[in-house]
Amino acid sequence: MTVPYAEALQEFEPVIGLETHVELGTASKMFCGCDTTFGADPNTHTCPVCLGLPGALPVVNEKAIESTIRIGLALHCDIATWCRFARKNYFYPDMPKNFQTSQYDEPLCTDGYLDVEVSNADGTLETVRVPIERVHLEEDTGKTLHVGGATGRIHGASHSLVDYNRAGIPLVEIVTKPVVGTKHRPAEVAKAYVAELRDVLRGLGVSDVKMEQGSLRCDVNVSLNKPGDDWGTRSETKNVNSLRSVERAVRSEVERQAARLRQGERIVQETRHFHEDTGLSTSGRSKEEATDYRYFPEPDLVPVAPDTDWVAELKAALPEAPSVRRRRLIEQLALSALDAEAMTNAGVLDLVLATVDAGAPAAEARNWWLGHLAQTANSSGVEPAELSITPAQVARVVGLVAGGSLTAGLARQVVDGVLAGEGEPEAVVATRGLAVVSDEGALATAVDEAIAADADAADKIRAGKVQAVGALVGRVMKATRGQADASVVRRLLLERLGVTE
Amino acid sequence: MNDLTRLTAREIAAAIAAGETNAVDVAQAHLDRIAKIDGQLHAFLHVDSEGALETARRVDAGEISGPLAGVPLALKDVIVQKGVPTTVGSRILEGWRPPYDATVVERLKSAGVVILGKTNMDEFAMGSSTEHSAYGPTHNPWDLDRIPGGSGGGSSAAVASFEAPLAIGTDTGGSIRQPAAVTGTVGVKPTYGGVSRYGLVAFSSSLDQAGPCARTVMDAALLHEVIAGHDPRDSTSIPSPVPPVVEAAKQADISGMTIGVVKELSGEGYQPGVEQRFAEAVETLTGLGAKVVEVSCPHFAYALPAYYLIAPSEASSNLARFDSVRYGLRVGDDGDRSLEEVMSLTRAQGFGAEVKRRIILGTYALSSGYYDAYYGQAQKVRSLITRDFTEAFALADVLVSPAAPTVAFPLGEKLSDPLAMYRQDLATIPSNLYGGPAMSLPCGLSDGLPVGLQIMAPTMRDELLYRVGAAFEATMPAPVPPLDWEA
Ligand SMILES: [Zn+2]
């Protein structure tokens, strides 16, 4: 039983909150020297420390502290001058020490915000400020694989396998304050927030932010209240691991809660599990049976006291914020807001800007990244940024087209060659033999052959039906494997047939 | 050559260096003695004859040299040694062979110290008598019916009975010093952070500290220098040079020093015989040219309760990893039981009563709603005790007290009374809470049993202990147990 989203939000006011976990892209783990590369054989990236062997001790990864502070600064947070790690105690087999080294009441970064943009019906963008409660650093757990059950869940499994490669990878938790005033679009704001956060993190270079590999994971809190009433009881939906899911999770929770509230039922404060396949969530454990984590300061680690000068240096060296860059791009390149949003949603905004910076005209850069490259990325299931072509290479291909040495069709083949790992664009042109044939002498034979092969078309053209020239152009292009400039071919054909336009 | 087991560590090293004996003969002599008497004493949980002789051969081959090369040592079973069983006195780790060396072990190995084996201890270092060892108690070489102290009773008994000239202990609330006191040996808890904890199976992370056990102050100093120093693998390790402890033990001069007698570490709970020997020791120090003053440390009265909140709290978390998943004991894994049931059964059978008591105590003290009243308050007491020390050290260079309130008590006497057992650490706990170094060394006998003098110094001034200890030792030869029980 649900109430449609729009209807629910006419009747109730939403309050949302997001907790985001980001795996940092440090070379080594949070408290030991183990490799963090994704996808290694199970339990090969482990040592006494991240396996929690008796006697082993943690040592803080300074790069992780630096990355966390840079995230905090990018989110306009205050940076602690002195803080400690804390132990969060609970038993779980994929957590080697049966406590997680985290931060509790002394986080590294507090009290910031992130401005996000949502588009209005008329295409204009509106800025919503999402307040940030804290940014703290902790370690990731291992991964458990339940074997023998039908669903891959623990229920019904015959046994479980644990991989500790992920155990101890630095994890940053970014927690918003309750976000009020999202009115008729809490789901859209939630999605925009996560997308913006992802762009900020990517711009900082602190994480590969791949939601599908779990390096960015979200928990979404939602409550509803009648206008004028106190905030309602919230639920927390866990494991929301794509942008689309963030939006769907908020939407479905608004619809579910509204239905309950309408019927006079109360909302249970609980953890809910999101299911990617259905877009719905199911009830997990309720707060009444919640664990007491028995937090206390981690005695194995000395306090972290970032030097204020160092923090100031980090702040001065922050890259331009994505929102600022977006505005600059829109102005500089005279793009429409909708275009900018499309680029943001496709994950190509940075790439377009970098391509422009590398010398390509804005329109060309946009067309490549929103067109052929976005499609290629989509069909191979990767983010555009993960394609093995750089903005600089795209800009060079654009340059080759502008200089007349490539046609649009050839340029595509060159790009595909670069994507296939055949080297730089110039090398692909050379090895695939893709240079435009502009030597009119070389084309003359092909033109003659085309006319001879399709006498009907030639006659029609001579009789004044110029549009029939397309068939002959096609023959020439085919014969030259696309390397001829179609407009030159057309001109040559018409000249040969004695027709003027 | 005389009986090699009666030599001090310094004498053994010198004899080997001079070619008067060799490391293999020394190791064999000690292994033979262990084989002969340890059935009665039970100081060792595991003897590594092969490993010991291998190191000795390498020393004899000239591959390793140094001030302690070829000297045998007994290692408390709380410190991991690669490939050698490490149980921490608990069933829960029975059969576990660590895949790595503790930093202390690495340093011992590279110094050519011959590790004879692992010594008995109260389970997870929780206790003052070794009676809480899951493998049965160690006996005091002075009287086999009495306790050797704890938790490091195995290490001290081994040293006192000439099974080894040196041993490594660990001291969380007195586990090096109280056993030293009741076995008539020298035991030192270095400054917290002075010796790496990497590879020391944690009981209470903010209090644990490994240190030397020996029969002389100089031997303890030599061992101290080998094991101490900054370790990047231990975040709490202090990045400063090791205090000049060997130099101080040579100097052995205390004229002009001011020594503070802690008023609060006497009276109720202290045996008259212990107080008598302590008073005489203070007179001796005066005679050696020190100025003796009385100092007051009013918050020491709260040290014991604060300790019994902090240590169990940390232990409740540190011991959570013993869950049967990755290593050690696993009970009841029959394919039907859930993971939680197997964890539960394993911990129920794998931990002894005292360990469970402290896990429960610590879990309670950290629970939501009780944290401030217990753990939080205890941390405040800890700050106040540190302040007491700081103020006392403004008046005196070192502080002294009896190391243990009683001489060795009969086995079984305090087993049914945990609080009486806990009171064994009345005098030693304050230094752990503060983090400063402290030593126990023999200061005579009471009723034929050893009494220990405790010396306490400011943090990273460990050399002061050795200066005072060596000066005192020179006035009183180390007591030798009668060993009349030897077959
Ligand atoms: Zn590791």
Treating each run of at least 4 consecutive H or I residues as one helix, how many helices of chain A? 17
Q: Helix coverage percent of residues of chain A?
A: 25-40%
How would a textbook summarize the main sheet of chain A? 9 strands, mixed
What's the rounded overall pLDDT mean of chain B?
97
Number of strands of chain B: 11
CATH superfamily of the domain at 4-250 in chain B: Amidase signature (AS) domain
Radius of gyration of chain A: 29 Å
Describe the overall structure.
- The complex is a heterodimer of chains A (501) and B (487).
- Chain A is α+β, with helices and mostly antiparallel strands.
- Chain A has three domains: 5-286, no CATH class; 320-432, no CATH class; 440-496, Arc Repressor Mutant, subunit A (Orthogonal Bundle).
- Chain A has 17 helices and 14 strands.
- Chain A has helices at 5-11, 62-74, 186-204, 243-262, 308-316, 322-333, 337-346, 349-357, 362-370, 372-379, 391-402, 408-419, 425-432, 440-453, 455-462, 469-479, 486-496; strands spanning 13-23, 78-79, 86-89, 99-102, 109-119, 125-139, 143-147, 159-163, 170-176, 216-225, 235-240, 270-275, 280-286, 296-297.
- In chain A, strands 2-5-6-9-1-10-11-12-13 form a nine-stranded mixed beta sheet. In chain A, strands 4-3-14 form a three-stranded antiparallel beta sheet, with no helix packed on it. A two-stranded antiparallel ribbon of chain A has the order 7-8.
- In chain A, a hairpin with a 5-residue loop joins β5 and β6 (125-139).
- In chain A, α9 (362-370) packs parallel to α10 (372-379).
- Chain A is elongated, with a radius of gyration of 29 Å.
- Chain A starts with a helix and ends in a 5-residue tail after the last helix.
- With 487 residues, chain B is of the alpha/beta class.
- Chain B has a domain at 4-250: Amidase signature (AS) enzymes.
- Chain B has 16 helices and eleven strands.
- Chain B has helices at 9-17, 23-41, 49-60, 103-110, 153-160, 177-183, 217-227, 245-251, 272-287, 303-318, 339-350, 353-366, 372-395, 418-422, 429-434, 462-475; strands spanning 44-47, 72-76, 114-119, 166-170, 186-189, 210-214, 258-262, 291-295, 398-402, 438-446, 449-456.
- The longest helix of chain B has 24 residues, at 372-395.
- The A-B interface holds A 48, 51-60, 87, 89, 91, 93, 96-99, 158, 160, 162, 292-296, 299-302 and B 79-80, 86, 88, 93, 96, 98-100, 102, 197-202, 204-206, 232-236, 313-314, 316-317, 320-323, 325-327, 335, 339-340, 343, 363, 366-368, 371, 375.
- The structure holds zinc ion.
- Residues 29, 32, 34, 46-47, 49-50, 168 of chain A line the site of zinc ion (ZN).
- The site of zinc ion has 8 residues of chain A, from loops.
